[in-house]
Amino acid sequence: MDAMKHLILISLFIVSISGCSNYKPTIQQGNALDSTTVSQIKVGMSKSDVIQALGSPLLTDDFNQSRWDYLYYVTERGQRSEQKNLTLQFDGNVITKIN
Fold this sequence. Notes:
The chain has 99 residues and is of the alpha+beta class. The protein is 30% helix and 38% strand.
């Protein structure tokens, strides 16, 4: 009888910890910066054209409104596996430099 109780306790313990896992989902953050979309961005485009193509920038500097930063990264299993950056410089409403 003691063996049966012991077996039941072990079974319950195994079932209870089987739901515990170290699963970390893949997380994508920022603006998707695929090469096709980025290649459409050209010097001379307006801010509204850029927003239409890429969306709003992830980062804007309050002290330098002429710089927009687009960032994209993927985190897999807690580690950053991919990162892309795009910086646009504007003069007024027009792109003057793409990094």
